[in-house]
Amino acid sequence: MNCIEIKNVTKDFKNTRALDNINLKLEENKIYGLLGRNGAGKSTLLKIISNRIFTDSGSITVNGKNTCENDSSQRKIYLMNESNLYPPKMKIKKAFQVTASFYPDFDFEYANKLAKLFNLNVNKQIRSLSTGYTSIFKVITALSVNTPYVFMDEPILGLDANHRELFYKCLLEKYTDNPFCCIISTHIIEEVAGIIENVVIIKNGSIIRDTSCEELLSEGYTISGPAALADKLAEGKNIIGSDSIGGLKNIYIAGKNDITEIPVGIEIVSMDLQKLFVQLTNS
Amino acid sequence: MTTIKPLYKYIMKNNLKSIFIFYIIMTAIIHIGFFICKLSNGSSGGIGGMEIATIFLLFSLVLCSYRETMNLSVQCGVSRKTVFISSLLAFITCGIITGTMDLLLSLLGNFYESRIETFTYDSMYEQTFMPVGVLPKFNDFLKVLLMCIGVNTATLIIAFLIGALNYRLSKTMKVVIPISIFVFIFVIFPIVDYTIFDMEITKQILKLLRWTFSSVYHTLVIAAVTISAALAMTYLFIRRVKIDDKK
């Protein structure tokens, strides 16, 4: 099966262990959410896969071939991250041309269409773009390269709400028309929750969850209702957090929902991804 | 091979633009020099050693573009090994092109020199290897071509090495290394050579320099040795370099 396989990858930066024996399989034609707190190792992992830095041990293969210093494997991968590796003086249309010379499936028409949608002037130099428009330029390039694996590290950095909506819409349209493996690393979990199919959570350099979004969400639930009733119902359960508004209370429970009789006034709903993430990654 | 070609094209396109502008300026300088000498009755003037300007151009061209080329290549999924091969091929091509252009400048200069007595043009070859006042022959122009290609390619490769080294070094080391080299050459080496070796190392270096500039072929041998050594070191610096993606 076509996939990116990460085996026993470890990476240290001086005295800090950024990645600790990571094992992960990223399958084709799926949208992954790579989640983790600041400094968890998400960007390091993406940089290692895309050959920007090297592992201390372990291996990464794309469709069975090693990615380290391998041109044919690297051409199947495209990483957009917060840093800009294009020459700052380069014009956007030139950047599209240069990228197309390395990625033959680059779709110029689509890139120009997206540039128009996002109001991005392709005659501008990259250095003259604002933070938001730099992200837009990188997102457009990433969506237009047509490689089997696209990594997006903080793709919505600096984007306003309208542009973020547009980005999610374009990503889903692109994915529906021409499925590919997209790995989105972000802190705006609420927004990507509706897009991602699989979730990979990294904590302190180790993967603590690698599962489908649905399965992960079934790991917890919320009891909502009048405080006294909710507290009574939650007794003896694995409470991972709570919040109150007036006389109403939300109690977050870890584990499968085994409540058979729901009292009047109480509501039991699945926990949202962000709440679950916060509970799972709290130290 | 598939990634060597686009990267080679990218490097060549960037370099050729600057080289083209440079030679337009150089040609203009020769023309202006010639016409000034022609118009000012009796007073003589001359131009020489324009190949040195080419060396400066090539050196700065590679040093200024190294970081951008490396970063862009990795962004576009090119391995460091391919960056090395593509750059090497592009530099050899640039060396041949600039060598040929230097020869053409030399031919143009000598053509004008033969037209009026008050104008003189001396290429680096003429200044180094030929007696004063003797006009070069066809055979000499072939030697000019060989020498220019060799020297220009060696310049490009040395700049490539310095670019690769500079990319790898931390901010502190970027200051420490040039100072150390200066201190070694101008303080430590002379003291050690004088006190321990009775100036024998300096004598041998001068002997090598005299040998190098005694014939075009000797210069080419030294250029080839320099290119090989610089390439080997550059590959070591590039091979496992971590991409510097800080703004």
How many strands appear in the DSSP assignment of chain B?
A: 2
Beta fraction of chain A: 25-35%
**Tally of domains of chain A:** 2
Detail the poorly predicted runs of chain A: none
Tell me, briefly, the overall form of chain B: globular
Task: Could you tell me the CATH topology label of the largest domain in chain A.
Answer: Rossmann fold
Whole-angstrom Rg of chain B: 21 Å
Report the total helices of chain B: 8
Separation, N- and C-terminal Cα atoms of chain A: 36 Å
- Second CATH tier, the architecture of the largest domain in chain A: 3-Layer(aba) Sandwich
Helix and strand composition category of chain A: alpha/beta
Number of helical regions of chain A: 10
Query: How much helical structure, as a percent, in the residues of chain A?
Result: 25-40%
Question: What would your notes on this structure say?
Answer:
The complex is a heterodimer of chains A (283) and B (247). Chain A has 283 residues and is of the alpha/beta class. Chain A has 10 helices and 14 strands. In chain A, the strands form 3 sheets. A 6-stranded mixed beta sheet of chain A has the order 6-7-8-3-9-10, with helices on both faces. In chain A, strands 2-1-4-5 form a 4-stranded antiparallel beta sheet, with helices on one face. In chain A, a hairpin with a 2-residue loop joins strand 4 and strand 5 (65-66). In chain A, helix 4 packs antiparallel against helix 5 (131-144). Chain B has a two-stranded parallel sheet. Chain B has one domain. The two termini of chain B are 31 Å apart. Chain B has helices spanning 4-39, 50-75, 80-115, 124-129, 138-168, 171-195, 200-212, 216-239; strands at 45-48, 119-122. Chain B is mainly alpha-helical. At the A-B interface, helix 2, strand 6 and helix 3 of A face helix 1, helix 2 and helix 3 of B.
